[in-house]
UniProtKB/TrEMBL annotation:
It comes from Subtercola boreus. One of its GO terms (biological process) is dTTP catabolic process. GO terms for molecular function: nucleoside triphosphate diphosphatase activity. The keyword Hydrolase applies. Keywords: Hydrolase. InterPro entries: MazG-like_dom, NTP-PPase_MazG-like_N, NTP_PyrPHydrolase_MazG. NCBIfam families: mazG. This is Nucleoside triphosphate pyrophosphohydrolase. Residues 31-106 form the NTP pyrophosphohydrolase MazG-like domain. SUPFAM superfamilies: all-alpha NTP pyrophosphatases (SSF101386).
Amino acid sequence: MTDQYPSRLDELIAVTARLRAPGGCPWDAEQTHESLVQYLVEESHELVEAIEVGTRDDLLEELGDVLYQVIFHADLAAHTPGEGFDIQDVAAHMTAKMVGRHPHVFGDRIAHTAADVVGMWDDLKAVEKPGRTSVLDGIPQGMPSLALADKVIGKAQKIGLLDADAPAGIPVSDEDELGSLLLAVVASAKAQGLDAERALRSTLRGLQDEIREAEAQDSADAGIIALPSVD
C-alpha cells in the first residue's frame, strides 16, 4: 500500500508555490533570480558557519534555508517565460548528472581511490563540456579570494606550471597556525593601508594569465608539423 500523504519536501514545495501565487505574499511575488542572490550568498555562509562551529539544530536549520533558496529559484523558473522548469526538472537533471559522473558505481568503470575518481571526473567533464578550452573555464571568479587561490593553484599544478610536489614555501603544522599566519598578513596589510583581498585577486589574475599563456603555447607547439630535413 502506497502512502497517499505528501512528503515533508512536497509540503515545502507547496508552501513556496502558495507564497508566490496570486493572493500570496507580495514580497515573494516580486522577487527575481537576481534579487535573491544576496540571500543565497548569506544563507550559504550561514550554513558553512553551522558546519564549522554550530550545533546539530543549527545545521538542520541552515540546510533548510539553503534548500528553500533552491526551491524558490525553481518556482521562479517554472513561472518565468523562457525558463519553464521546476524543482522536479532540477532533481532529474542532477540525478542524471550524478549517475553519469559515477560510472564506477553505476557502470563498468573501476576506481579504487579518490584520486582515480577525480581523474575520471576530469575526463568526463571534457566530454560533457567540449567548449571549454582552458582548465580555468568554469571557475567562478566571484569566489572568496582564498578559495579562488586554492582552485587556481590546483589548475596551475595540473598543467605543470607549478610543481605540485614542491616543498612548502611557508611550512605550517596545522590549520590553527595557518589561520594565525593569515590573520597576521591581513593585519599587516591593514596597518599599511593595503587591501589584502584586492592584492590577492590581482595576483591571481596574473597567475591565470600565465596559465592561459602556457595553454596557448602548448596548443601552438602541438600544432607544429615537423618538416623533413633537407641535406
